[in-house]
C-alpha cells in the first residue's frame, strides 16, 4: 500500500482501497493516516472523513465538504450548498499539499464532491478512497487500487484470540472451539472481532451453544454490515446474487452452460456478474466463481426473512427440512422460483406429496438429490409446472418414463444421472433451448429420444448406460453439439453418421460393444479429442482410416502428458504398416524436443529398421558426420502374458484393466546409451497407460525423438550399444520387471519424404500432406507448448561409471 502511495513522488495521486464489507478497509486506511500524519510533516493539511455513505444521506454533501476543508485549514468555515463547496475547495486546496482519506464511498456524486479532479490539489497531495465497488474507483480514474484480502488461518486465529482472550492465542481448552469460529469467519476480520468479543469471558458450554446457534441463526451485526453491498444492487442483480448464494456451490466453473442458464433467467450475466465482482460479492479466479461463505449465509438469511414462518412462501427452498415441510403439508405457492437440495438424509417414513409442486407455477430451477428410500405420493414430474422451468437436475430419479404431460419447452439443462429411466419421451419433443442432456449411469435406459426437435443441444453424456443398444440417427443432425460421451455403453455396437456435426470436438466411447473403428467419412472434421478403446474393439476393415480426420491434432491432457486415444489397427505380416496404435503419448522432453511414445498390439519390429536384435540390447555404428537434425525411433517388443495373473494382494487379474486402482497402472521405459565400458547415459522415457491386452500375445512400445543429437549429456555418434529396461508399475507403487523380447533402433532424416518411418506412422499421409509435414507439425506444436509453459521436462539420470 505504501508503494502505491509513493510519498516521495511529487505528483497528485489517488489510491483506492477495495474489498468486501468487513474485510478491514477502514482499519487499514486509519493506520496509514495515523502513520502519515505523524511521520510526513511536509503535508500542509490532512483530513479523514469516515462513513461517507451514511453521513452523506444524513447530513448532505455540503456538510461533508465543510468538514473536509475545516480540518485541513484548521478553522471553522461556512458552506451553504454544494456549488459553494466546490468553488471553495478549488480555491483553498489547489496550491496546498494535502493528505485526505475518504472512507466508505459508494457513489460517483460523493467522489466528485469531495475529491473532484487531481488538478484541484497541490503537487504531492495524496487522496485515499475506501470503497466496496472497484468499478466506481475506475470510473473516477483511480487506477492505483489495493485489494484487501481475507486473513490466513494463523492471522485469523490471532485476531480472534485478541478479542476472545485478550492475547494472541487461545486458552488450551478452548483451542478446538476457537478454530470452529475461525473456520466460520473464513478470514473476515469483522466476523472474527464480533464473534470474539461476544464470546469473551463465557464458559465452554456457552461457546458450544453459540457455535450451534450460528449454524441456524447467523450473527445479525455481521449480516447487517455485509448486506450493505447487496442493498446497493438493482433488483435483478439482487435476484442474481440470491441465485448464486442459494442455488450454486461456493465455487462454480464459469463455463458456457452456466452462463446460458443464467441468461435463460434474464440476468444478462456477461455484465451483471462483473457488477457483483466489482462490489466484492463474488470473485473470479482461474475460470472459477467464488463466493465467501458469510456472503452465502447472508443470501440464505435474506431469503429466510421473506417469510420466516412459512417456507412455502419463500422464493428459494434450499434446506431439506423446509422442502419436506412444504411437500408434506402441501404449502407450495407461486412465490417459489427454485428448489435446491444437495443431500437428503435416509428416511423410511417420509412420504412427499407430489401435488404440492403444482402450486409452484414460477418454478424455474429444480435440483434434487434424494435418498433411495424417499417415497412420493403421486408422480412429481406429472405435477411439476413446466412453463418457467429452465434447469432440471434429479440424480436417481425413480420413475421409468417421463409422463406425457411433462413438456418443459424452456428447459436449458437436463441432468438425471443414475436414474431408473428406460425411455424419456416418445417421438419428437420441441425443446429449442435445451443445451445439456445428461443421463449418465442410467443403467435401464434402452433408447434415447428423437433429437430433431432439440436443435441447439451442445452436450450429451450417456456414460455407463449399459442397456443402450443404439443412438437415434437424429443425433447426427445436431449442428451445435460439441461434446458426446458414450463411455461404458457396453451394449452400444456402432456409432451413427456424425459427419454433419460441424461443432463436435470431443468424443469419448471407450469400453463399448463397438467392434469396428468408424470410417473418416462418418466422422466430423471438427473433432479434436477422440477416445475409442477397450471393449470389443477389433481390426479396422475399412481402407478409409480414422486418421484422415483433419483436425485430430490436439491432444487431451492426462496428468502431465497429452494423449491421443485412438486405435489404428492395420498391420501386415512384415510390419510395414505399424498403425497399431492403442495409445499415443505426445510430450515435450528435454527443453523443446518432441517425443511421441506409442504402445501397440500384435506388434513386430518392421523389416526396414536399421539396428535390431533379440533381447533387450542392440549395437549401433554411426558416422561421426551424422546429420545433427537426424531423428530416431526406438522399438521394443514384450509378451503380453507377463502382465497376467498379477497378485494384488487379494486376487489375480487376467488383463491390465481388471484389478484395484488400475487407472494408475503404467509401463515405464528406460533407454540406456553406452559409449564404452567407462561411460553411459540413461533417459527415462514417458510412461504408457495400458488397456486390455488379453486378446494379443505381443505388445510393442516405441519412442520417436526428432533431432536425437540434441539430447543433453549425450553424443549418440559415439554410442556403441543401446539397451532397454521396462517395468510395470501397478497396485500401491509395486513394480514388476518386464522382459524385453526384441528391440530395434532406426535413424532417419526428418526431411526425407520417402522415409520408411514416415510412410508407416504419419497419420497425415492419407490426408494429402507430405510425410515431412508430420514431423514439422508435431515439432511446431510442441514448441508452441513450450512458449505457453505447458510442456513437461521428464526426469533424466546421468550415470558415470569407472
From TrEMBL:
InterPro entries: Apaf_helical (IPR042197), Disease_R_plants (IPR044974), LRR_dom_sf (IPR032675), NB-ARC (IPR002182), P-loop_NTPase (IPR027417), WH_DNA-bd_sf (IPR036390), WHD_ROQ1-like (IPR058192). The keyword Electron transport does not apply. Residues 7-168 form the NB-ARC domain. The keyword Phosphoprotein does not apply. GO terms for molecular function: ADP binding. Gene3D superfamilies: Helical domain of apoptotic protease-activating factors (1.10.8.430), P-loop containing nucleotide triphosphate hydrolases (3.40.50.300), Ribonuclease Inhibitor (3.80.10.10). Keywords: Leucine-rich repeat, Repeat. Residues 237-305 form the Disease resistance protein Roq1-like winged-helix domain. It comes from the Eukaryota. One of its GO terms (biological process) is defense response. This is TMV resistance protein N-like. The lineage of its organism: Eukaryota, Viridiplantae, Streptophyta, Embryophyta, Tracheophyta.
